[in-house]
Predict the 3D structure of the following.
Amino acid sequence: MLYSAFIFGLISSFHCIGMCGPIAIMLPVDRQNEAKKVTQIVTYHLGRLTAYSTIGLIFGLLGRVFFLAGLQQKLSIFIGLAMILVVLIPEKIFSKYNFSKPVYKVISKIKSGLGAHFKNRSYKSLFIIGLLNGFLPCGMVYVALFGAIAMQSAGLGVLYMLLFGIGTVPLMTIVLYVNSILTVSFRNRIQKVIPYVAVVIGVLFILRGLGLGIPYISPSNMSLFVQQTPNCH
């Protein structure tokens, strides 16, 4: 399932340039020295990937708890259904419920931190901008976190979110150079594809949980469980 993280990150980056694109465009990079600009952009992305990996670790540990409790199949099915519902339910329904209210103060501090570091061109500031950017609320990241939980281990949770983040790097880099080609109409057309990709990934997680014995897609029930004694024929 790890490959789905990179693919989803790649497609989600069209959503990212709408939400985080302005942050990337405003990065305090050196516009005169191309080599330095490249290393500065890489530093920014490393900050983002560090943030994604950190939350991947947390949710991977959570998934590990479900795995040890023997709930991995049910969890995989639940996560697949959740992914599908998140993209199918109209956004206006979610807007009626202010889920982010408890973390308003945290978000405010993150935005304040971003503003302060935009005034500095140091590599440390660029890394922190990427780090804080990665912790900002994002619907696509939330969907990816479902996948991190289903990975059933801290290490794989980190890897899942890392691959998701790497998938967003190409387009988030291109927007720094040729943002003019990424018009609003073009982004809107691509964003229409995102729900379909999320549904496909959700279906893959459901199939995985069903244990139908399909190689690489839906392993048999026996391979999904940790057994104290080997099952030999």
